[in-house]
Design goal:
The protein is of the alpha+beta class. The chain folds into two domains: 126 residues, 3-Layer(aba) Sandwich (Aminopeptidase), CATH 3.40.630; 132 residues, 3-Layer(aba) Sandwich (Aminopeptidase). 32% of the residues lie in helices and 31% in strands. Strands 1, 2, 3, 4, 5, 6, 7, 8, 9, 10, 11, 12 and 13 form a 13-stranded mixed sheet that branches. The longest helix has 15 residues. It starts with a strand and ends in a 7-residue tail after the last strand.
Protein backbone atom coordinates (compact mmCIF):
# COMPACT_ATOMS: atom_id res chain seq x y z
CA UNK A 1 0.00 0.00 0.00
CA UNK A 2 1.20 3.51 -0.81
CA UNK A 3 -0.30 6.90 -0.03
CA UNK A 4 -2.39 8.31 -2.84
CA UNK A 5 -0.61 10.93 -4.97
CA UNK A 6 -1.22 12.41 -8.39
CA UNK A 7 1.14 9.78 -9.78
CA UNK A 8 -1.00 6.82 -8.65
CA UNK A 9 -4.44 8.51 -8.54
CA UNK A 10 -5.73 6.75 -11.67
CA UNK A 11 -5.01 3.38 -10.05
CA UNK A 12 -6.70 4.62 -6.86
CA UNK A 13 -9.88 5.56 -8.76
CA UNK A 14 -9.78 2.18 -10.54
CA UNK A 15 -9.48 0.31 -7.25
CA UNK A 16 -12.35 2.28 -5.69
CA UNK A 17 -14.68 0.95 -8.39
CA UNK A 18 -13.90 -2.67 -7.43
CA UNK A 19 -16.27 -2.44 -4.45
CA UNK A 20 -18.72 0.34 -5.41
CA UNK A 21 -20.43 1.13 -2.08
CA UNK A 22 -17.20 1.15 -0.06
CA UNK A 23 -15.05 2.55 -2.85
CA UNK A 24 -17.33 5.56 -3.30
CA UNK A 25 -16.91 6.37 0.40
CA UNK A 26 -13.11 6.20 0.04
CA UNK A 27 -13.18 8.27 -3.15
CA UNK A 28 -15.42 10.90 -1.53
CA UNK A 29 -13.32 11.31 1.60
CA UNK A 30 -10.22 11.81 -0.54
CA UNK A 31 -12.06 14.40 -2.68
CA UNK A 32 -13.46 16.20 0.38
CA UNK A 33 -10.55 16.20 2.80
CA UNK A 34 -7.44 15.36 0.80
CA UNK A 35 -4.65 13.12 2.02
CA UNK A 36 -2.72 15.31 4.41
CA UNK A 37 -5.08 15.49 7.39
CA UNK A 38 -4.47 13.79 10.73
CA UNK A 39 -7.99 12.32 10.67
CA UNK A 40 -8.05 11.22 7.03
CA UNK A 41 -5.69 9.26 4.76
CA UNK A 42 -5.99 7.32 1.51
CA UNK A 43 -3.84 4.52 0.09
CA UNK A 44 -3.73 2.40 -3.06
CA UNK A 45 -2.29 -1.03 -3.79
CA UNK A 46 -1.06 -1.43 -7.35
CA UNK A 47 -0.28 -4.52 -9.37
CA UNK A 48 2.80 -5.17 -11.47
CA UNK A 49 1.27 -3.34 -14.43
CA UNK A 50 0.29 -0.37 -12.28
CA UNK A 51 -3.36 -1.33 -12.09
CA UNK A 52 -5.36 -0.65 -8.94
CA UNK A 53 -5.85 -3.79 -6.83
CA UNK A 54 -7.15 -2.19 -3.63
CA UNK A 55 -7.97 1.23 -2.22
CA UNK A 56 -7.99 2.05 1.48
CA UNK A 57 -9.25 5.07 3.34
CA UNK A 58 -9.30 5.97 7.01
CA UNK A 59 -11.70 8.68 8.13
CA UNK A 60 -11.41 9.17 11.88
CA UNK A 61 -12.14 5.81 13.53
CA UNK A 62 -13.34 3.96 10.41
CA UNK A 63 -11.03 2.23 7.94
CA UNK A 64 -12.44 1.04 4.60
CA UNK A 65 -10.93 -1.17 1.92
CA UNK A 66 -12.30 -1.58 -1.60
CA UNK A 67 -11.10 -4.52 -3.65
CA UNK A 68 -8.23 -6.40 -2.04
CA UNK A 69 -9.25 -9.86 -3.23
CA UNK A 70 -5.87 -10.28 -4.94
CA UNK A 71 -3.86 -8.93 -2.02
CA UNK A 72 -1.94 -11.16 0.37
CA UNK A 73 -4.17 -11.34 3.48
CA UNK A 74 -1.26 -11.38 5.93
CA UNK A 75 0.27 -8.28 4.35
CA UNK A 76 -3.12 -6.57 4.30
CA UNK A 77 -3.67 -7.38 7.98
CA UNK A 78 -0.21 -6.04 8.84
CA UNK A 79 -1.03 -2.82 7.00
CA UNK A 80 -4.28 -2.42 8.96
CA UNK A 81 -2.52 -3.01 12.26
CA UNK A 82 0.38 -0.74 11.32
CA UNK A 83 -1.65 2.38 10.46
CA UNK A 84 -3.80 2.07 13.62
CA UNK A 85 -6.23 4.81 14.63
CA UNK A 86 -9.34 2.85 13.68
CA UNK A 87 -12.02 0.91 15.53
CA UNK A 88 -14.04 -0.46 12.59
CA UNK A 89 -12.69 -1.95 9.35
CA UNK A 90 -15.23 -2.30 6.52
CA UNK A 91 -14.40 -4.32 3.40
CA UNK A 92 -15.76 -7.15 1.22
CA UNK A 93 -16.86 -10.08 3.41
CA UNK A 94 -14.57 -12.69 1.82
CA UNK A 95 -11.56 -10.46 2.42
CA UNK A 96 -12.70 -9.74 5.98
CA UNK A 97 -12.93 -13.47 6.69
CA UNK A 98 -9.33 -13.91 5.48
CA UNK A 99 -8.08 -11.07 7.68
CA UNK A 100 -9.90 -11.94 10.89
CA UNK A 101 -7.52 -14.81 11.92
CA UNK A 102 -4.63 -12.31 11.99
CA UNK A 103 -6.27 -10.49 14.91
CA UNK A 104 -5.76 -12.29 18.25
CA UNK A 105 -8.78 -14.06 19.67
CA UNK A 106 -10.79 -11.73 21.85
CA UNK A 107 -9.59 -8.58 20.09
CA UNK A 108 -12.07 -8.32 17.24
CA UNK A 109 -15.50 -9.45 16.09
CA UNK A 110 -16.93 -9.80 12.58
CA UNK A 111 -20.27 -8.36 11.45
CA UNK A 112 -21.66 -8.55 7.94
CA UNK A 113 -24.46 -7.46 5.62
CA UNK A 114 -25.39 -6.80 1.97
CA UNK A 115 -24.11 -4.63 -0.83
CA UNK A 116 -27.01 -3.53 -3.01
CA UNK A 117 -27.22 -1.71 -6.34
CA UNK A 118 -30.11 0.01 -8.11
CA UNK A 119 -31.38 -2.20 -10.91
CA UNK A 120 -33.63 0.33 -12.62
CA UNK A 121 -36.41 -2.24 -12.92
CA UNK A 122 -38.76 -0.28 -10.62
CA UNK A 123 -38.09 3.08 -12.25
CA UNK A 124 -41.87 3.63 -12.38
CA UNK A 125 -41.77 4.20 -8.61
CA UNK A 126 -39.90 7.43 -9.21
CA UNK A 127 -42.89 8.90 -11.07
CA UNK A 128 -44.72 9.35 -7.77
CA UNK A 129 -42.08 11.71 -6.37
CA UNK A 130 -43.66 15.01 -7.54
CA UNK A 131 -46.93 14.20 -5.74
CA UNK A 132 -45.42 13.66 -2.31
CA UNK A 133 -42.09 15.45 -2.48
CA UNK A 134 -43.73 18.38 -0.69
CA UNK A 135 -43.58 16.32 2.50
CA UNK A 136 -39.79 16.58 2.35
CA UNK A 137 -37.26 19.39 2.49
CA UNK A 138 -33.90 19.12 0.75
CA UNK A 139 -30.59 19.90 2.44
CA UNK A 140 -32.32 21.79 5.25
CA UNK A 141 -33.10 21.16 8.90
CA UNK A 142 -29.75 19.61 9.76
CA UNK A 143 -30.18 20.14 13.50
CA UNK A 144 -33.67 18.57 13.40
CA UNK A 145 -32.19 15.67 11.42
CA UNK A 146 -29.50 15.15 14.06
CA UNK A 147 -32.07 14.95 16.85
CA UNK A 148 -34.12 12.46 14.80
CA UNK A 149 -31.08 10.23 14.27
CA UNK A 150 -30.12 10.47 17.95
CA UNK A 151 -33.54 9.23 19.03
CA UNK A 152 -34.43 6.72 16.34
CA UNK A 153 -31.29 5.37 14.62
CA UNK A 154 -29.67 2.51 16.61
CA UNK A 155 -26.01 3.07 17.40
CA UNK A 156 -25.92 6.70 16.29
CA UNK A 157 -23.56 8.43 18.71
CA UNK A 158 -21.79 11.10 16.63
CA UNK A 159 -21.10 14.36 18.47
CA UNK A 160 -23.34 17.12 17.15
CA UNK A 161 -20.58 19.56 16.09
CA UNK A 162 -18.59 16.88 14.29
CA UNK A 163 -21.65 15.47 12.50
CA UNK A 164 -22.91 18.90 11.45
CA UNK A 165 -19.50 19.93 10.14
CA UNK A 166 -19.17 16.70 8.14
CA UNK A 167 -22.63 16.61 6.54
CA UNK A 168 -22.73 20.33 5.73
CA UNK A 169 -19.26 20.05 4.14
CA UNK A 170 -20.46 17.16 1.97
CA UNK A 171 -23.59 19.03 0.87
CA UNK A 172 -21.65 22.21 0.02
CA UNK A 173 -19.18 20.27 -2.12
CA UNK A 174 -21.73 18.16 -3.98
CA UNK A 175 -20.87 14.96 -2.12
CA UNK A 176 -24.00 14.89 0.01
CA UNK A 177 -27.76 15.29 -0.20
CA UNK A 178 -30.43 15.11 2.51
CA UNK A 179 -34.17 14.41 2.16
CA UNK A 180 -35.91 15.21 5.43
CA UNK A 181 -39.55 14.32 6.01
CA UNK A 182 -41.33 16.95 8.08
CA UNK A 183 -44.48 17.11 10.18
CA UNK A 184 -44.85 20.78 10.96
CA UNK A 185 -41.51 21.82 12.44
CA UNK A 186 -40.57 18.28 13.48
CA UNK A 187 -38.32 16.00 11.44
CA UNK A 188 -39.96 12.57 11.31
CA UNK A 189 -37.97 10.76 8.60
CA UNK A 190 -34.54 11.16 7.03
CA UNK A 191 -32.66 9.65 4.10
CA UNK A 192 -29.52 10.87 2.42
CA UNK A 193 -26.62 10.41 0.04
CA UNK A 194 -23.21 10.84 1.60
CA UNK A 195 -20.66 9.93 -1.07
CA UNK A 196 -20.21 10.05 -4.84
CA UNK A 197 -17.46 8.45 -6.91
CA UNK A 198 -17.00 8.80 -10.66
CA UNK A 199 -19.67 6.12 -11.26
CA UNK A 200 -21.63 5.53 -8.05
CA UNK A 201 -23.59 7.32 -5.34
CA UNK A 202 -24.03 5.83 -1.86
CA UNK A 203 -27.52 6.05 -0.39
CA UNK A 204 -27.26 6.16 3.39
CA UNK A 205 -29.39 4.48 6.08
CA UNK A 206 -32.98 5.59 6.73
CA UNK A 207 -34.41 6.76 10.05
CA UNK A 208 -38.10 7.34 10.81
CA UNK A 209 -39.79 8.28 14.09
CA UNK A 210 -41.51 5.26 15.59
CA UNK A 211 -44.96 6.85 15.54
CA UNK A 212 -44.61 7.55 11.79
CA UNK A 213 -43.28 4.16 10.73
CA UNK A 214 -45.42 2.11 8.36
CA UNK A 215 -46.59 5.18 6.41
CA UNK A 216 -44.10 4.88 3.56
CA UNK A 217 -41.95 7.85 4.56
CA UNK A 218 -38.74 5.83 4.56
CA UNK A 219 -39.45 4.45 1.09
CA UNK A 220 -40.22 7.92 -0.25
CA UNK A 221 -37.02 9.34 1.21
CA UNK A 222 -34.92 6.58 -0.37
CA UNK A 223 -36.55 7.09 -3.77
CA UNK A 224 -35.94 10.84 -3.61
CA UNK A 225 -32.27 10.06 -2.94
CA UNK A 226 -32.20 7.53 -5.78
CA UNK A 227 -33.52 10.14 -8.18
CA UNK A 228 -30.93 12.66 -7.00
CA UNK A 229 -28.09 10.17 -7.60
CA UNK A 230 -29.45 9.41 -11.08
CA UNK A 231 -29.60 13.15 -11.79
CA UNK A 232 -25.87 13.27 -10.97
CA UNK A 233 -25.42 10.59 -13.66
CA UNK A 234 -24.32 8.02 -11.07
CA UNK A 235 -25.62 4.56 -10.14
CA UNK A 236 -27.22 4.29 -6.66
CA UNK A 237 -25.60 1.74 -4.32
CA UNK A 238 -25.79 1.09 -0.58
CA UNK A 239 -24.72 -1.10 2.33
CA UNK A 240 -27.39 -2.54 4.60
CA UNK A 241 -28.02 -5.19 7.21
CA UNK A 242 -29.33 -8.50 5.85
CA UNK A 243 -32.61 -7.86 7.67
CA UNK A 244 -33.17 -4.67 5.62
CA UNK A 245 -32.46 -6.21 2.19
CA UNK A 246 -36.14 -6.94 1.50
CA UNK A 247 -37.06 -3.28 2.08
CA UNK A 248 -34.56 -2.14 -0.54
CA UNK A 249 -35.49 -4.88 -3.01
CA UNK A 250 -39.04 -3.52 -3.08
CA UNK A 251 -37.57 -0.17 -4.10
CA UNK A 252 -35.61 -1.56 -7.05
CA UNK A 253 -32.29 -2.62 -5.52
CA UNK A 254 -30.64 -6.01 -6.02
CA UNK A 255 -27.91 -7.63 -3.96
CA UNK A 256 -24.32 -7.27 -5.18
CA UNK A 257 -22.24 -9.25 -2.73
CA UNK A 258 -21.68 -8.88 1.00
CA UNK A 259 -19.67 -6.59 3.23
CA UNK A 260 -17.86 -7.48 6.41
CA UNK A 261 -16.93 -5.23 9.32
CA UNK A 262 -14.15 -6.12 11.73
CA UNK A 263 -14.81 -4.24 14.95
CA UNK A 264 -12.05 -3.98 17.50
CA UNK A 265 -13.06 -4.73 21.05
CA UNK A 266 -12.01 -2.34 23.86
CA UNK A 267 -8.29 -2.56 24.49
CA UNK A 268 -7.44 -4.18 21.13
CA UNK A 269 -4.44 -2.70 19.31
CA UNK A 270 -4.24 0.01 21.94
CA UNK A 271 -7.80 1.30 21.39
Amino acid sequence: MELVTEKNRRAFVQACELTPAIGAEIFAQDALFGNDQAFCNSWVLRGKAGEGLAAAGRLRSTLRIAGGQQADPEQLALFCRWIGGWECLQLPLKTAEKLLPYFPIGQAELQYGCFMIWSGENRALLKGIPQWKGQFVENQGLTACYHLLSRHYPGFEAPYDLWLCDISHRIRHGQGYLALGMEGQEAVSAAGVFALSERYGVVGPVATSRQYQGQGLGSKGVLICVRWVLEQERIPVLCCQNSAAGFYRRLGFVQQGQWGAIRLLPGALGT
